[in-house]
Amino acid sequence: MNADNAYGKGGDFALLLSAVIKKESSFGAGLPGSPSAGDGLMQVEPNTRNAYLSQFSAKFGHAYNHSSEQDQVYMGALILNEKMNRFGNIYNGLLHYNGGDYWYPGATDSYGRPILADQYANQVYAQYKSYGGRS
């Protein structure tokens, strides 16, 4: 099973996942020395990952393996798909994949730094479209 087939997106979801992976980890090249607490190719934060562990096991039939690049992509795909369904479309899904469920323009993190989810979503969406994304 691949992540695209798991969600019945007909190839388009794979393009979106590729755009997210490029932004988050440069296809893995950006992982060594990264200061982020994010996990792997999709840079899922530990608290977010932990919140989705039971859904991951139910969807993919096994426990999440932190060392598996396939599981890293599957976890990110699970979360992104949920955000897209919850917030209505790809762009809004990207906003909340990056900024969290309660993101809004002008939101800040716990250190008072702006959460630039809109810039993130614009960059990832443009990359997705450059790959031939349809939506």
UniProtKB/TrEMBL annotation:
Q: SUPFAM superfamilies recorded for this chain?
A: Lysozyme-like (SSF53955)
What InterPro entries would the database entry show?
A: Lysozyme-like_dom_sf, Transglycosylase_SLT_dom_1
- Short name of any one Pfam family annotated for the protein: SLT
Domain Transglycosylase SLT: start-end pairs: 16-101
Protein's name according to its UniProt entry = Transglycosylase SLT domain-containing protein
